[in-house]
Design goal:
Blueprint: H1 3-17, H2 29-40, E1 47-51, H3 59-66, E2 71-76, H4 79-92, E3 97-101, E4 114-120, H5 129-139, E5 140-151, H6 183-195, H7 197-206, E6 209-223, H8 226-233, H9 239-242, H10 247-263, E7 271-284
The chain binds S-adenosylmethionine (SAM).
S-adenosylmethionine is lined by residues 7, 10, 14, 22, 29, 33, 51-54, 57-58, 75-78, 81, 103-105, 120-122, 125-126, 236-237.
């Protein structure tokens, strides 16, 4: 994988998604970000770094808790996400928030300058996240903490998607995906350190953390219809899959997903999906 090309693809996908990201009435990122901050529990006056802040799902709940004496710096590689988060900060009159375009893989920020680092569904996009974790440890003060979310990967999970989708996406549809976006490459990149709790704990300890806590909890997503879910899926990470499909393949997958999701509804009622999320917290090891 060429990390620069990979990041350019990720940036372009989230830049294009930013305007509708988390705006289509499907509540997934917002409750997950809020819950992450509950797990992280920043205190008044804390300085927080939010990596891959997007439109601010975990950034704004942290800003509320740290209060006027605290500070939250949100960084994101996609300029359109940063613009949207800045507009929201302005709308809220949040004075303790700063948002910058910055690559979260190796952010050039002063050592020991944050009490908490968060990253909701974002560190999974960093090409070499285990190495980035060691750099994050150096940005934290003594007793500083990290908290991030990821999908709950299993061996047969198609990355970025709840497990039920694996069987709905035939391999033939993936033939045009570049090598680094093929399921095996993604699984290798993510599952190798996030898939098993003992691997994750080992990675975090190697990076300089201790007291690693891993909690898997579902986000209860309510969507009006299969079609609404599929439209929403274009505004998040799954966009990286959609954009590599031909028009015919895209239509085929759309129909398959809508049919399968509508089958889960009770008549015309909404669709209830429990999406498993992994919440990871850890404390920087004593220096
Ligand atoms: C699924 S979104 C999550 C956004 C937000 N944390 C939330 O929960 O809604 C992933 C975010 O990570 C950002 N991202 C991906 N790679 C990144 C990198 N190398 N550095 C910083 N941000 C990155 C994307 O631009 C996107 O905004």
């Amino acid at each position: 994988m060429d990390p620069a090309a990979y990041k350019a693809t990720v940036t372009a996908a989230f830049d294009r998604a930013a305007a509708s990201y988390d705006q289509l009435g499907v509540e997934f990122f917002t409750p997950m970000g809020r819950r992450l901050v509950e797990h992280a529990a920043p205190r008044e006056g804390h300085r927080v770094l939010d990596i891959g802040c997007g439109r601010g799902a975990s950034l704004f709940p942290s800003a509320e808790l740290v209060g006027p004496t605290g500070h939250v710096l949100g960084i994101d590689i996609a300029p359109a996400m940063v613009d949207a988060a800045r507009a929201e900060a302005e709308r809220q009159g949040a004075k303790n928030v700063e948002i910058r375009v910055l690559d979260g893989e190796n952010p050039d920020l002063p050592a020991r300058s944050f009490d908490l680092i968060t990253g909701s569904y974002s560190v999974i996009f960093i090409p070499d996240a285990p190495s980035a974790m060691a750099r994050y440890a150096r940005l934290l003060t003594e007793h500083g903490r990290i908290a991030f979310t990821s999908p709950v990967f299993t061996d047969d999970t198609f990355p970025f998607l709840p497990p039920m989708f694996t069987e709905l996406i035939p391999r033939s549809l993936l033939r045009n995906l570049p090598a680094e976006w093929q399921p095996e490459a993604l699984q290798h990149r993510f599952n190798s350190w996030l898939g098993r709790v003992d691997d994750l704990e080992k990675t975090m300890r190697t990076a300089g953390f201790q007291d690693v806590v891993v909690v898997d909890e579902p986000v209860h997503v309510v969507v009006q219809s299969g079609e609404a879910w599929v439209d929403w899926s274009h505004t998040q990470g799954m966009r990286l899959l959609w954009q590599h499909l031909t028009a015919a393949d895209s239509q085929q997958l759309r129909t398959r997903l809508i049919t399968a999701l509508d089958d889960l509804r009770d008549g015309d009622g909404p669709l209830f999906l429990d999406v498993p999320v992994r919440y990871v917290t850890a404390t920087v090891a004593g220096r």
